[in-house]
């Protein structure tokens, strides 16, 4: 009796595994195909797109780097993405602490205002008008501001939820020792918030690195473009050179994939935590 | 809430307020002002630049919308509904199934969870290019697969199936996110329920229907909410995959709107009015969603 039960259980596990493997193959096949294509010569690709590469063409990446001006775009992306994620984290953390600890009258009203702002009926028409009115159209600063300010309400929300889970006694002890308010936030509150700040930071870096629409719409100068919109317009021009395009797309995806391999747990938690607290 | 204001002497409300001022400004300048500006612009014939003279036109943009772009808007509206409905339901179905599978105690669970979530960290440019390649009618693997059966297809170039391929790519790229939320929900369900049910002789299927599903309800609600609001407003994936074509087969309402936004010299007041109409539509959908799900929760 027992053994037949066990056998049924292991059979079940094998079925589950097979189903999961089919699913994983569906997800990974396009990525594998992209990598395979990036390592072929264009001639080989046209002859037989499906064949595995026998003689990996690492030079494709060098060529993509040069032809697609990826070096410049990547530099723009790194700079804009890191800067805007940093600004978001600082501003949100400063706001989240007083709000979650009720440090002034009306803080809950401000919080409600922040939350409802996520449902305000703005549109791209108005955002373009605003950025033009601020004289920031076609500047990196404009996109950095849109990237960093746009997510603040959500990030304050994520951080507030985290701080509410920290014991209050801790901050009272710090205050009894006596210290200025900002010194207190910087030396005491921020270190406690490290996990959530790291989460929001990674979440913002991924979001901004991958953002295409804002970058595409608000920057028209080629030299100022980040890698997404830069590459989109490059691809439009070189639409026949598959291997070159695959190599350049892979260069864009690679930093995020590497980040994901190492920080997978935190990234999944970070990207879903905004939803889970809601 | 108000009366538990901290009484510690060294908290100065003035300094606490100054700490939230940057965030307050950010939300106001990049949240409230664009919303007011959008409503304001919708009553003018603003042409994409404050240097070009424009005037107040009252409700003209709202009335003209139906005569000038009514037909195009209606067709893109229908495409949006088709796209959203099919994406939401298929995606949630796949996400629940994969979450249940990944939740089984297998050694490789973490690996599969990571793989299914992977497309969420790839940007729309990467996804768009990858799938344009996969679905290329000459060189793509999908075409090679059909060749084995002696068939041919234009894939994204075929107006009859383009929308369904976009649905497929969207699900491919997003279901891992929903799965992660279902998984988090599943992990909060205590094993005790299942043990008790097993002792009472309930089958696995009964357990799934009577324990898992009701306890997963919060995760289901939040996932449908995210998925509905997300798919109704989606346009970037179509923009990189098909540009809305062939013809207008994959032009969702938001993509139509986005195309109008790029025509800067045209009457942007009308585009703003269009965004207000769409905002009202989404609000109605989401409010009725809330109403429907709240009532269901009371019934339980």
Report on the architecture of this protein.
The complex is a heterodimer of chains A (278) and B (300). Chain A is an all-alpha fold and 278 residues long. Chain A has helices spanning 2-38, 42-47, 59-67, 70-100, 107-117, 124-133, 140-150, 152-164, 168-176, 181-192, 194-210, 213-218, 227-237, 242-277. The model of chain A has no long low-confidence stretch (mean pLDDT 85). Chain B is built from 13 helices and no strands. Residues 1-7 of chain B have low confidence and may be disordered. Helices cover 70% and strands 0% of the residues of chain B. At the A-B interface, helix 1, helix 4, helix 5, helix 6 and helix 7 of A face helix 1, helix 3, helix 4, helix 5 and helix 7 of B.
In short:
Chain A is mainly alpha-helical.
Chain-wise SSE layout:
The complex is a heterodimer of chains A (278) and B (300).
Chain A (H helix, E strand, L loop, with lengths): L1 H37 L3 H6 L11 H9 L2 H31 L6 H11 L6 H10 L6 H11 L1 H13 L3 H9 L4 H12 L1 H17 L2 H6 L8 H11 L4 H36 L1
Chain B lengths: L12 H29 L18 H9 L1 H34 L5 H9 L6 H11 L6 H8 L13 H26 L3 H9 L4 H12 L1 H16 L3 H6 L11 H10 L5 H32 L1
